[in-house]
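A.,

Following up on our hallway conversation. Structure tokens first:
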């Protein structure tokens, strides 16, 4: 049996990104249930997840409802002790929990002024002093974590729940071109290149219409993460493969890449692959095989 996870729009819901990474980045099976933000969809869906009122909300295989990402992280770590959500070293684990707790409760100015939008990146956003103070605090605790744990790429050794908690912050820094030191920008770039982050963003680019709430008037620039391979959706169902690389179901929708026509069982499977082909190992195995 797998877990159920209620999420909001992937392109915008920073809390949902954090919750989903706690599964995908650690190899824990999960079935997602998407509810569009700023509509009745989310409150209606959560009626089946009492007493939850926000996304993400998890339901365990034995039926326990667990809202809030900090609780989801701890519960998954208890149920899957070998998954590596928290560092095995006691000191690194303590540092990681400090970071996750502060992220869960803090950085309100940064969140409010720079709501996560994975669909665009701006050349700048003229951050006010309160946001700059939040960025300075990030510099402090990220440096502290690395100094305490001797880590280089991630904050506390291998990728952990602490890094998953800061993935939406990395997305904000990338999306709004926020001023951080080279050391912290390298950390941001590690997030943008992380396989799970790339999969989530690819889905977020195609899983619904733009949300007006997140529109900003700033000049745009290309997304600063890895440049996707060129691919495009095409008409018809004629493809070199007969089964979707994800579901195994018959092909109904097709993309073109490197002069080849490869097919999928629905438009979403195709479009998320068009958005970033290299984010999807099963598709790349099909392409290269």
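Then the amino acids I'd put at each of the 289 positions:
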């Amino acid at each position: 049996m797998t877990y159920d996870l209620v999420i909001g729009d992937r392109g915008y819901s920073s809390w949902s990104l954090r919750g989903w990474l706690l599964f995908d980045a650690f190899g824990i099976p999960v079935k997602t249930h998407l509810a569009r933000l700023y509509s009745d969809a989310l409150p209606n869906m959560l009626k089946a997840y009492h007493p939850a009122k926000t996304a993400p909300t998890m339901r365990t295989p034995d039926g326990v409802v667990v809202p809030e990402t900090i609780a989801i992280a701890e519960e998954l770590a208890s149920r899957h002790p070998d998954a590596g959500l928290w560092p095995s070293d006691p000191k690194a684990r303590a540092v990681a929990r400090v970071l996750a707790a502060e992220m869960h409760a803090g950085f309100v100015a940064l969140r409010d002024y720079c709501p996560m939008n994975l669909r665009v990146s701006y050349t700048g956003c003229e951050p006010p002093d309160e946001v700059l103070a939040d960025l300075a605090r990030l510099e402090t605790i990220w440096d502290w974590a690395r100094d305490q744990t001797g880590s280089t790429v991630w904050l506390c050794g291998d990728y952990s729940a602490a890094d998953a908690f800061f993935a939406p912050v990395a997305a904000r820094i990338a999306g709004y071109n926020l001023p951080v030191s080279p050391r912290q920008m390298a950390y941001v770039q590690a997030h943008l290149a992380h396989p799970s982050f790339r999969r989530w963003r690819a889905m977020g680019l195609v899983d619904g219409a733009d949300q007006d709430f997140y529109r900003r008037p700033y000049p745009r620039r290309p997304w600063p993460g890895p440049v996707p391979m060129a691919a495009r959706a095409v008409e018809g169902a004629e493809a070199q493969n007969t089964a979707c690389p994800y579901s195994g179901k018959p092909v109904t929708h097709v993309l073109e890449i490197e002069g080849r026509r490869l097919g999928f069982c629905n438009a979403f499977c195709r479009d998320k692959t068009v958005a970033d082909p290299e984010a999807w190992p099963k598709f790349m195995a099909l392409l290269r095989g």
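The first strand starts at residue 3 and ends at 7. Curious whether your intuition agrees with the design.

B.
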